[in-house]
Design goal:
The complex is a heterodimer of chains A (303) and B (134). Chain A is an all-alpha fold and 303 residues long. Chain A is built from 13 helices and no strands. In chain A, helix 2 packs across helix 13. The longest helix of chain A is centred in the middle third of the chain and has 27 residues. In chain B, the strands form 2 sheets. In chain B, strands 1, 2, 3 and 6 form a 4-stranded antiparallel beta sheet that branches. A 3-stranded antiparallel beta sheet of chain B has the order 5-4-7, with no helix packed on it. The chains are: A mainly alpha (303), B alpha+beta (134).
């Protein structure tokens, strides 16, 4: 009780708790929705939807999200009332996330007709919001070392037992680092192997300016950080503390590994145009790097 | 369902703010779509094609003529076919067809066409000849 009161006093507006919940929500939405955000047929079908179909889709998405929120949701609480609130929030998050990614890949812009923008965004929102609505069951609590923040523990604190020898700690750390990078590589390959050979990568890479490509890189890094943070990487035990173990460094390493996977996939499976010149290869790698980074970071949750 | 009956204290301001912003977004979208329902539905669209003679350039000995294709209607056009009629060197009639996969409602697209001779001297006439809507 005293603990609950002190937690409330430390975060009276619930900003920290809401921030953690939103990270979990974005992680779920990104993992489920990203492949569909890179699918041309989804853009096309969204573009062709009339206002009545879009209204029906919005209503249907709310209903489906309500059902998913009753059994999971993205907040760690259950009940019909909370599910009602969560389903609306999940759709709101889905709308914003879908619009941002579609804008990043140049699929929607201020010159497009409103009907097409809303159609494309709504069509993608169905998938993204479902990802948000199952996030509590599939993202939260998947970290290997427990949810230290929620429980108030600090897994980085050493155990009360006598500390192991330095050589043993180095061995533990090396094993953990190898496991992490392997999980990243496997997640990146499994997640983006279906996107690498598609025409969408070449299409998007061809139309983006260098500034837009830089924005895609920043977004990829941001998503990597969000997913790693939401999966609880920061709560993993650190045997040998170093700069490499910090969340920003983990993010950069995960993104770099994802870019390497994206480039390799393009070389092996990609459309010939994606490697036509150094500029094309770099642009295609950055574009494919966005879903690959999501997969790489998600690999740390799944494996 | 995990964590049976998970309780985590009362809802706080930040959660209500997130919910409020989301609800506003959803309601605004629903209102916008409902308002658009009042627009008349028509499958007849006046697709327009305009050659940009003032923007002709030369590339590797050929002339490049931009064609501005516009869809002012409220429906997305699929498989829009544009026919370009022009007179050849000896005055013979020639045609060139351009196919545009999709042209969004109220949007424009520029298509570049190659000619061996200066398009300004070829009596060019371009028009849309077919499209379909879903």
């Amino acid at each position: 009780m005293a603990r609950a009161v002190s937690k409330h006093a430390a975060d009276p507006w619930g900003l920290r708790r809401e921030g953690r919940d939103l990270l979990v929500a974005i992680t779920g939405g990104a993992i489920v929705g990203m492949p569909l955000l890179f699918t041309m047929e989804m853009w096309l079908h969204g573009m062709l939807l009339g206002p009545l179909q879009q209204l029906a889709m919005l209503f249907g998405t709310l209903v489906v999200n309500l059902l998913f929120s009753i059994v999971s949701g993205f907040r760690h609480e259950y009940g019909v009332k909370s599910a009602l609130l969560e389903s609306v929030t999940a759709v709101g998050i889905g709308l914003v996330f879908s619009a941002l990614v579609l804008w990043l890949v140049g699929e929607i812009g201020p010159a497009d007709a409103w009907g097409e923008i809303t159609g494309k965004v709504l069509f993608q929102t169905t998938a993204v919001s479902i990802g948000v609505s199952v996030a509590d069951a599939h993202v939260r609590g998947k970290q290997r070392a427990g949810d230290g923040q929620e429980k108030g523990d600090n897994p980085r604190e050493p155990d009360p037992e006598p500390p192991p020898a330095r050589e043993q700690l180095e061995s533990f750390q090396l094993r953990q680092d190898v496991r992490d990078i392997t999980a990243t590589l496997i997640g990146a390959v499994v997640y983006s192997i279906n996107i690498g050979p598609t025409e969408e990568v070449v299409l998007i890479a061809g139309r983006l300016t260098p500034w837009q490509l830089a924005a895609v890189m920043l977004a990829s890094l941001g998503l990597c950080y969000v997913i790693l943070y939401a999966s609880g990487v920061k709560d993993q035990p650190v045997h040998i503390p170093s700069l490499v173990q910090s969340p920003p460094a983990e993010t950069v390493i995960t993104y770099a590994a994802s870019l390497a996977v994206a480039m390799a996939l393009l070389g092996v499976l990609g459309e010939p145009e994606s490697a036509g010149s150094v500029r094309d290869l770099a642009a295609s790698t950055i574009v494919l790097g966005l879903p690959t980074a999501v997969g790489g970071a998600a690999g740390r949750i799944a494996l | 369902m995990s964590g049976g009956g998970a309780t985590r204290g009362p809802r706080r301001l930040a959660e209500w703010v997130t919910f409020g912003v989301s609800l506003a977004l959803v309601l605004a979208l629903a209102a916008h779509l409902a308002w658009r329902l009042r627009e008349p539905v028509t499958e007849r669209v006046d697709a327009r094609v305009a050659p940009r003679f003032d923007d002709i350039s030369q590339q590797a000995g050929r002339y490049l003529l931009p064609l501005e294709i516009a869809n002012p209607g409220g429906r997305t056009l699929r498989d829009l076919q544009v026919r370009i009629d022009y007179r050849g060197e000896r005055g013979e009639r020639r045609t060139m067809d351009v196919l545009v996969d999709y042209l969004g409602q109220g949007s424009e697209q520029v298509v570049y066409t190659y000619f061996r001779d200066d398009p300004r001297t070829l009596s060019i006439h371009a028009e849309a000849i077919s499209y379909r809507v879903d």
